[in-house]
Write a structure and sequence with these properties.
The complex is a heterodimer. Chain A is of the alpha/beta class. Chain A is built from 8 helices and 10 strands. Chain A has a 6-stranded mixed sheet with strand order 6-7-8-3-9-10. A 4-stranded antiparallel sheet of chain A has the order 2-1-4-5. Chain A is globular, with a radius of gyration of 17 Å. In chain B, helix 2 packs antiparallel against helix 10, helix 10 packs parallel to helix 14 and helix 12 runs antiparallel to helix 14. Chain B is elongated and about 95 Å long. Classes of the chains: A alpha/beta, B alpha+beta.
């Protein structure tokens, strides 16, 4: 048993570490995670693979602080997430999410959607706009800033979601099947962009995916089955 | 700016619902403003009748309505003789009806009364007032609805009177009233030797407290109040004011329920959107601020629209000939402030449950389901 606080492994190079994480639904009737152990190196890319319902999304939610594990502990950059880190500050500054569905607000423009995390964090407008310009330039969306989400293609929407996730310069990006709703060509393009951005931004990526080809391009592939991780399989 | 856009976006997304909600607040505010202003105007007018060239009113203690007040003639004579008193005018109020007008206010007054002295006589001669017991002067509107002219004879209640003057006043009650010589009024209303009130003008306003004390000592069953005190304490006014605010408050409550309904629907239809904002770092106060901001905006715009509608309605009422002189469209700033504050409060109260619901939304659950 380890004491709360710093990561007992002493490894500050790990962006994320989970130990014996359990999670169930319906008052324990459906056990989704049954003692998950995971370690993701800083700046590395990790793919979570496995059949639908094996607990990939649940694990991402727990790692990202959207939910609490029933048992087990999670460390972020060597600090225990609960109770060590402020959940709101963690969501605002430490982690970014990309979902299978873009989850953008349809009535707002591309720029306004991207600025939402900076609004939440209270970032000054000039810095927020500079960051927006930088990200949209790199994702090829610079000419679409004032377009509403309805006017964007599926790929553009997912690129917008990617920009939004990176606006507050998070250290960790959690992607839940980020290309799952796109055609093959768009999927490949988004994935390349994702890898490029995490590399240039120095972000740690943990991505749930069904796509073996994408998974194999990650530094680490973790296979999930029956609520547990089997692996890792070095790529 | 983006925060405001998030609020406006949702209102624009459900335009019809937002408009219905806004209209609910607007009509509630308009109703409240109209009722309160009309009653406030009526009270001001009635007070104006009492305070015509006087500062103090003397009437029977503990009487619920001035029409039932009984002040003996002896008291009038004694008070008028006090050195501190410039003049003391007895007034007897009475109500009669004619065929088409169920309520006509009658004022039994002396020829020296300020109501006669200071009114504009558009027909007749004020020096003739009270020379003969069967002669009356009419307010301009009363002359109109009684189809009376100078020298004509009119039926008022069970008596017939000759019209010796027609007066123009800015006061609706006086304009629609009948001015009788005090003695005639006392006989007509079976109040021989009595009046309803005495309106008193002091030589020195500073002597008001002394005057009131003296009345209390000399006439235990009478009470003397300064005009402002009377307006504040007269039970009829208090009942009228309470009724006006209660009616307006009920209207606003209905408007508030409309806002609550709109806000509940607004939250229910964007559970996923609220979850997205949560995932992107929105705090509970930020989420609540968005919901309350939305309802406050609806309430504020509704209140402003309601004030415009209410004011327009009051001006329209003022143009109705039958109401001439009764509607005073001088909307009091405190009334405006209270109405706007009540509308905002109603909006905020209507958003309480929706905001609590929004705060209980767990992002992880909302995102799991389509």
């Amino acid at each position: 048993m380890t004491s709360p606080g710093n990561d007992p492994t002493g490894s500050s190079r790990l962006a994320l570490r989970a130990e014996g994480v359990w999670k169930s639904y319906d008052a324990g009737a459906i056990a989704v995670l049954r003692g998950v152990d995971l370690a993701a190196a800083e700046g590395g890319t990790t793919a979570l693979c496995g059949p639908s319902g094996c607990g990939k999304s649940t694990l991402l939610h727990l790692l990202g602080g959207l939910d609490q594990p029933e048992r087990g502990r999670i460390w972020v950059h060597g600090r225990e997430r609960h109770p060590g880190l402020d959940p709101l500050q963690f969501l605002r500054h430490e982690v970014g999410f990309v979902f299978q569905l873009h989850n953008l607000i349809p009535d707002l423009t591309l720029a306004e959607n991207c600025l939402i995390p900076t609004l939440a964090a209270g970032t000054d407008r000039r810095s927020a706009l500079a960051r927006l310009g930088q990200l949209t330039e790199r994702t090829g969306l610079g000419h679409r800033l004032d377009h509403r989400i309805q006017k964007l293609s599926g790929g553009e929407r997912q690129r917008t979601a990617l920009c939004r996730a990176l606006m507050n310069r998070p250290k960790i990006l959690l992607a839940d099947e980020p290309t799952g709703s796109l055609d093959a060509q768009s999927s490949a393009a988004i994935f390349e962009l994702l890898l490029e951005l995490v590399a240039t931004e120095g972000v740690t990526l943990v991505m749930a995916t069904h796509d073996r080809g994408m998974a194999e391009r990650c530094d680490q592939v973790l296979e999930m089955r029956d609520g547990r991780i089997h692996g890792p399989e070095p790529a | 700016m983006l925060f405001l856009k998030l609020i406006l976006t949702n209102l624009r997304r459900h335009r019809v619902r937002s408009l219905i909600s806004l209209a609910g607040i607007a009509f509630s505010v308009a109703a409240m403003l109209t009722v309160v202003t009309i009653l406030q105007g009526a009270i001001t007018m009635f007070t104006g009748i009492l305070s015509s060239d006087s500062q103090i009113i003397v009437f029977e203690r503990n009487v619920s309505d001035l029409f039932f007040s009984h002040v003996p003639a002896g008291a009038v004579a004694e008070i008028a003789a006090w050195p501190m008193v410039a003049h003391a005018d007895p007034v007897l109020f009475g109500v009669v009806s004619s065929a088409d007008h169920p309520i006509i206010t009658c004022f039994g007054i002396t020829g020296a009364d300020a109501r006669i002295r200071k009114a504009t006589w558009i027909a007749g001669d004020r020096s003739r007032f009270a020379l003969h017991p069967d002669e009356v002067a009419l307010g301009e509107r009363a002359a109109g609805f009684l189809s009376a002219s100078l020298g004509s004879s009119v039926q008022i209640g069970h008596g017939r009177f000759r019209v010796i003057g027609i007066l123009k006043t800015a006061n609706g009650f006086e304009d629609g009233g009948v001015f009788m010589p005090l003695g005639s009024a006392q006989r007509f209303f079976h109040q021989e030797g009595a009046s309803s009130v005495i309106t008193v003008k002091l030589r020195d306003q500073a002597a008001a407290a002394d005057f009131k004390r003296t009345v209390q000592v000399r006439f235990g069953d009478l009470v003397a109040l300064e005009d402002t005190e009377f307006t504040r304490s007269y039970s009829q006014f208090r009942i009228l004011k309470a009724t006006a605010w209660a009616v307006g408050g009920c209207g606003l409550l209905l408007g508030g329920l409309g806002v609550a309904n709109t806000m509940i629907m607004s939250v229910f239809t964007r559970i996923r959107e609220i979850a997205i904002l949560r995932v992107n770092g929105f705090s509970s106060p930020q989420i609540a601020g968005m919901i309350f901001g939305e309802s406050a905006l609806v309430s504020l715009v509704g209140a402003l629209a309601g004030l415009a509608i209410g004011t327009g309605f009051l001006y329209a009422l003022k143009l109705v000939p039958a109401l001439h002189g009764y509607i005073d469209v001088s909307i009091q700033p405190p009334v405006l402030l209270i109405v706007i504050l009540l509308a905002l409060l109603t909006g905020v109260a209507g958003a309480l449950y929706p905001a609590l619901y929004a705060l209980r939304i767990r992002a992880v659950e909302a995102l799991r389901f389509e």
